[in-house]
Amino acid sequence: MDHDFKLLINGQAVDGASSFDVVNPATGKPFAQCPKADEAQLDQAVAAARAAFPKWAATPVEERAAMIEKLAAALEARAAEFASLLTQEQGKPTEQAMGEVIGCTFILRAFRDRRIEEKVLRDEGGNKVIEHRTPLGVVAAITPWNFPLILMMNKVGPALITGNTMIVKPAPTTPLTTLLFAELAKDILPAGVFNVICDQNELGSKLTGHPEVDKIAFTGSTGTGKKVMASAAAMVKRVTLELGGNDAAIVLDDVDPKLVAQKIFDGAMTNAGQICVAIKRAYVPSNIYDEFCEEIARIANEAITDDGSKQGTQVGPIQNKMQFDKVRELLDDAAEKGTVLAGGKPLDRDGYFIPPTIVRDLPEDARLVQEEQFGPVLPVLKYDDIDDVVARANNSDFGLGGSVWSKDVAKGTEVAKRIDTGTVWVNQFLAIDPNIPFRGTKQSGLGAELGEAGLNEYTQAHIVNAVELA
Ligand code: NAD
Question: Could you name the active-site residues (predicted)?
Answer without folding.
Answer: 242
